[in-house]
Amino acid sequence: MHHEVAENALNQAGVPATFLRPSGFAYNILQWTGALRSEGDVRAPFADTALPLIHTRDIAEAAAVVLTEPSHEGKAYLLTGPEALTPAQQTGIVADALGLTATYEELSVEEAGGALRDLGHLPEMLVPSVLEVLGPTPPRCPSRPPSRS
């Protein structure tokens, strides 16, 4: 994980910091809209992995909290969304919002890595990080309910 390298460097340099570690961005599933409209399907890895995608508003609010309250210095927070959803569930939500019927096809990790590389806008060193799967979700920061839209 490349963020860990940056966090370690800041810690070793003695730079006061608070680390926000958002789970997958809810916004990223919008990239599926083109495939849903043209092909009626989404192809992605980790069919059985439910992730608590987070809205960027929630990340911004957490950042505002840690930037204005010194009690967070030196801490790290995994930021998550309100509900863990599988890619198939995410596909269904996006398809419903578009008024479409859709299917979800699972890709192997190798196929997904190839697809990410084929997009051409993601540096090679980030492909493995994008394909990492999150573990159990710790408590959220801040304490208000996360956004659902």
Automatic annotation (TrEMBL):
SUPFAM superfamilies given in the database record: NAD(P)-binding Rossmann-fold domains
Q: Which InterPro entries match?
A: Ergot_Alk_Oxidoreductase, NAD(P)-bd_dom_sf
| Gene3D superfamilies documented for this protein | NAD(P)-binding Rossmann-like Domain, UDP-galactose 4-epimerase, domain 1
The protein's superkingdom reads: Bacteria
Which PANTHER family does the record match to this protein? PRESTALK A DIFFERENTIATION PROTEIN A (PTHR43162:SF1), PTHR43162
**What is the official name of this protein in its record?**
NmrA-like domain-containing protein
